[in-house]
Design a protein that fits this description.
With 94 residues, this protein is mostly beta strands. It has one domain (2-93). The chain contains one helix and nine strands; from the N terminus they run ββββββββαβ. The radius of gyration is 15 Å and the shape is elongated.
């Protein structure tokens, strides 16, 4: 099954990166200041393949699925890390 992760980042080394299962509101402004320079957030969508029976809880911003260890729940950041490291059932879709 494929889901969309929404990434918010800044064009500055070591700046924060955030992931969500829901899009960031267009009315919200996110900035990051380095010295006297203020950077606006960049937003992009990432497609991620997750285990077939996964369910998204948009209110709690969690993905749940059943693994050989039982019921698992993860945040969007964790799902991104799973996809990057190719944990069983998770892949970034190009």
């Amino acid at each position: 099954m494929k889901i969309t992760l929404y990434q918010r980042s800044f064009a500055v080394k070591d700046s924060p990166v955030a992931y969500s299962f829901v899009p960031y509101p267009v009315s919200q402004r996110h900035t990051f200041k380095v010295g006297e320079t203020v950077f606006e957030a960049d937003h992009k969508e990432l497609q991620v393949s997750v285990p077939e029976e996964s369910k998204l809880d948009f209110l709690k911003n969690l993905l749940s699925w059943t693994s050989d260890k039982g019921l698992m729940k993860s945040t969007a950041n964790e799902v991104f890390n799973f996809a990057q490291t190719q944990v069983s059932g998770f892949r970034l879709v190009k």
